[in-house]
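Changelog-adjacent note: as of this version, every example in the card shows the full chain rather than a window. The one below runs 77 residues end to end.
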Amino acid sequence: MRISRRTTHSDLRSLEAAAAVARSGFACIFSSSDEYERALITERRARGRYSARQGSWTMTALILLALSVTGAVIYWV
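Full-length structure tokens:
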């Protein structure tokens, strides 16, 4: 049983190409975690994740809480 040299060489090149493709799949486009976080926040801002209306909801809840506490104090006095 004789293996041709041409087949072995092409198989070796095929394996090397497959290994190169597999290694490139693990590459990361960010050089550091800070760069990743900055890109993530920029993307979320672009989608409207950090909008001003969330702050207005918080302010409304605080005002309602203050009014209810004031009402309770007036009721008990």
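Structural remarks: Residues 53-76 form the longest helix (24 residues).
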